[in-house]
Structures are given as C-alpha cells and as structure tokens.
C-alpha cells in the first residue's frame, strides 16, 4: 500500500450527509460521504438520475448546508469561510435557471472578476485581460456581444464556463457542463477542462452522464448509487471491478466490452483484418446478429489497402465495397 500525500488535497469531504431540511424530518439524499479532490485532478461524478449529484455539488459549493459532516477547502471548514472568500477559492457552474437579465455574454463573463474587485469600481487591465482570455479559451468570442437571452442553450452553457474560467479559482465545480452541447463542443469542453488541470493545477469536478467521455478523460470517477456509499476510484478499475455496472444497474449494455448486448442469431463468421477497419466490421457484423468465431465456413477478410473492401470466402469468393453490401450478402446466405 502506498501512503497518500495529504498536501495533494484541494478539497475534502468528511462524514458528510446531504439532503433537505423539511418540516419534521430531514430528507437524507446521500450520507457517509468521505471523498478527496486532489490538486490538478479532473474528477467525473456519475450516477443515475435523482441519486443526489447536484445536491452534493451544491453542498460542496456552500449553496446549501450539509445535514451533517464537513466540507474542507484549502484546509478550512467551508462553514467558516465568507461567501466573498469562498468565491476566490471555488467556482460553480450550474446550468439551470440562469437569469442574466439584459446582459451581454461578455458582461456575464466579467461577473467572474467581481470577487477580485474589492472596493474598486472598475475592472483593472488584468481583469480585462482575464475576461478576454476566458472568452478565447471557452471559444465564445463569436457571440460574446450578444445579449444572454439571445444565446442558444449550448452557447449559454459555454458562456457560463467562460465566466467560471474568468473567476480563476483553484477548484471548479460544474454540474453537467456538456448537457446541451453537440459532439464537437462536448469534446472541446472536456479537453479544455482536462488541459486546465494539467497546465494550471486546478481541481475540476464535473457531474456528468457521459460515461464515454468520462472513461476517456477523467483522472478519477466518483460514483453515487442508490443505497451504496459514494465510491471513488480510477476509471478503468471501476469498469473492471464491476463498480459501474453495480451503481447504474446496467441493463442491455456490456461495459467491459463497451458494447450494447447483442442478440446472436446463431450465425457464425470468421474475421481477419486489422486496425479500426476491423473494429467497425466487427461492430456491423455483431449489430446484425453475427457471431465472430473461428469455427465457421464463412471467412471474411477486411482488405484495408487503397480501396477498402471485404472478401467473403465461402464456396466462391465474393467481394463487397461497403459494409451494407456485406451484411446484405450474408443475409441471403443459408447458415
Ligand atoms: N429542493 C428540494 N427539496 C426536496 N427534495 C429535493 C430538492 N431538490 C432535489 N430534491 C430531491 O433530491 C434527490 C436528488 O436530486 P439531485 O438533483 O441531487 O439528483 P441528481 O443525481 O443530480 O439527478 P440528475 O442526474 O437527474 O440531475 C431527488 O430525489 C430530488 O427529487
């Protein structure tokens, strides 16, 4: 066992219970939570709908009080830190209910500098530079002068991320930052956040439902399930030890292979080839109910030379130029 270095830790959670104070009895959503967020780490917080991710993030950010236990940031108990001081240590991006009145995108981003203004009324050159840097980093310059109410959901989402970047805090917490974004923007935002952890040592925690992006970019996963403690681990370990399957109670999806569970039609084909062409051929075959096996009279060879083609070796050889043709041909055969 390797000893942990406690100077590494930007934020820790100790014996925390989160939920809602109602009239008679507390509504406990998650309890017995003990987690650490390290410097320079991108953590994806995952779990099924309604399990309490937002509730925990809001509690960590001081927006709601814990039912019991502590959040410790920069070696201080969150409950003992003023809102002004906290806003230089942590930024929070929530996506719901943004009411930015008649502001422009740039003005919204500029709100990120308010914790640093003190008694000053105007932005300093440094503030203005940070605003422009954040706008460039989040790639929102094309619509930074539009009114916030004129932005699309995805544009607004990116503008809120720019505002958090502008706040320039050692800890950033984002609730579903990619929810309204298209594929390019999702990848760009995740890469940007990952890059920030590497270049600036910031700790970034995001709640997300995007298992594929999380598995490819997170340094660590936090997993919340119903009736289990919040788990923390290395993403690949959590795939291999079944933690993700357990938390999500996965049905119809085999996480170890990253595939939807396919119904085999009992038709077997053998397959030869290499690289991504082989992977996509396998995908097309399995999606259409074919099982890859060496014990088959049908041999498929992926020819990935200049012109991609597929050769079916059976009694006579047949060559197809697309996977659609290959599958249509196989479907006509008696297995
Ligand atoms: N203000 C509130 N008062 C009482 N219960 C609430 C309140 N807000 C949320 N809840 C409940 O707390 C539970 C957790 O909600 P939360 O929004 O934290 O889940 P989540 O994991 O973020 O879900 P999702 O993935 O759907 O965003 C839910 O059962 C929800 O109904």
Automatic annotation (TrEMBL):
Occurrences of domain ABC transporter (ranges): 13-251
Main location: membrane
GO molecular function terms attached to this record: ATP binding; ATP hydrolysis activity
Membrane topology, record value: Peripheral membrane protein
Transferase found in the keyword field: no
Subcellular location: Cell membrane
Record keywords, A-Z: ATP-binding, Cell membrane, Ion transport, Iron, Iron transport, Membrane, Nucleotide-binding, Transport
InterPro entries: AAA+_ATPase, ABC_transporter-like_ATP-bd, P-loop_NTPase, Siderophore_ABC-ATPase
Protein name: ABC transporter ATP-binding protein
Single GO biological process annotation from the record: iron ion transport
GO CC entries: plasma membrane
């Amino acid at each position: 066992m390797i000893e942990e270095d406690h100077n590494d830790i930007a934020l820790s959670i100790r014996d925390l219970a989160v939920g809602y104070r109602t009239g008679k009895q507390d509504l406990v959503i998650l309890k017995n939570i003990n987690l650490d967020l390290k410097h320079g780490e991108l953590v994806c917080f995952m779990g099924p709908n309604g399990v309490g991710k937002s509730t925990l993030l809001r509690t960590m950010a001081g927006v709601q009080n814990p039912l019991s236990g502590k959040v410790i940031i920069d070696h201080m108990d969150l409950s003992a830190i003023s809102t002004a001081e906290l806003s230089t240590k942590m930024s929070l991006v929530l996506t719901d209910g943004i009411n930015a009145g008649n502001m422009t995108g740039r003005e919204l981003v500029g709100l990120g500098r308010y914790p640093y203004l003190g008694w000053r009324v105007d932005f300093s050159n440094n503030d203005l530079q940070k605003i422009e840097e954040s706008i460039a980093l989040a790639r929102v310059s094309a619509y930074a002068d539009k009114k916030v109410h004129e932005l699309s959901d995805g544009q607004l989402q990116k503008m809120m991320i720019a505002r958090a970047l502008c706040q320039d805090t050692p800890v950033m917490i984002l609730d579903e930052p990619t929810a309204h974004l298209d594929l390019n923007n999702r990848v760009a935002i995740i890469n940007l956040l990952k890059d920030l952890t590497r270049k600036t040592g910031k700790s970034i925690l995001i709640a997300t439902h995007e298992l594929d992006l999380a598995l490819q970019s997170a340094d660590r996963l936090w997993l919340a399930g119903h009736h289990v403690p919040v788990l923390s681990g290395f993403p690949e370990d959590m795939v291999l030890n079944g933690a993700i399957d357990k938390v999500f109670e996965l049905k119809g999806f085999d996480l170890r292979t990253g595939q939807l569970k396919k119904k085999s039609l009992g038709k077997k084909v053998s397959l030869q080839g290499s690289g991504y062409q082989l992977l996509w051929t396998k995908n097309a075959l399995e999606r259409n109910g074919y099982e890859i096996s060496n014990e088959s009279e049908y041999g498929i060879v992926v020819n990935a030379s200049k012109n991609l083609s597929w050769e079916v070796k059976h009694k006579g050889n047949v060559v197809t130029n697309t996977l659609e043709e290959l599958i249509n041909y196989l479907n006509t055969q008696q297995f």
